Amino acid sequence: MIEERGGVVLTAAVLDTTDGDAVVAYTEVVLSDPAGTRAIQYDTVVVPAHRGRGLGSAVTRLLRGRLGELHPGVREISTIVADENASMPAVNEALGYRRERPAGIFRMKLQRPCAEARWMSQPVDAPEPVSRRQCWRRRTKSSKDSSSGQVW
Questions:
Q1: Residue 13 forms beta bridges with which residues?
Q2: Is residue 98 included in any domain, yes or no?
Q3: pLDDT digits (tens, 9 = 90+) for 94-142
């Protein structure tokens, strides 16, 4: 869907060749505008049996390097980390990301009425938070923080 709208998705993965080339870690970066200066890093996932080996950092570094080669104009990468994910904040800080702000993620359940093809929202008093997350941002040295004027 992102690519259908002119965006770009880049993915890096680590394969375990002892297990038939099984993917044991991956991450993705999305550029909604390939000529723009901002990117969003989507999921970074490491299979539980392979955690603690630096694979999350490795796929992130690999993808950042490839992003720099293919889209050198990118100056800022944002990502979101769930509060319950104990390891990724340290990984992100080591890679140069800085905590930006807390974020609340909300969910609304939908129901499908009878045989109609459209969706209707289920009556809810208020959306319930699914989880608390932190937004992180990594800026290159030539990026400027518009709120503080600080150059990163």
A1: 26
A2: yes
A3: 999 998 888 777 777 766 655 444 444 444 444 455 556 666 677 765 5
3-class state of residue 4 by DSSP: helix
- The CATH number that applies at residue 95 is 3.40.630.30
How far is the C-alpha of 152 from the C-alpha of 149, rounded, in Å? 10
7 vs 53: CA distance, rounded Å:
32
Number of domains in the chain: 1
Query: Are the beta carbons of 75 and 143 closer than 8 angstroms?
Result: yes
According to DSSP, the β-strands at 128-139 and 76-82 are antiparallel
Domain annotation covers residue 122: no
Contact in structure between 56 and 27 (CB atoms under 8 Å) = yes
Residue 62: which domain range? 3-104+133-139
> Would 25 be classed as within a structural domain?
yes
What percent of the chain is predicted at pLDDT more than 70?
74
Put simply, whether the predicted model's pTM sits higher than 0.85 gets the answer no
Q: Considering the domain boundaries, does residue 70 fall inside one?
A: yes
Distance, CA of 123 to CA of 136 (rounded, Å): 33
Percentages of the chain per state (helix, strand, coil), in multiples of 5 = 20, 40, 40
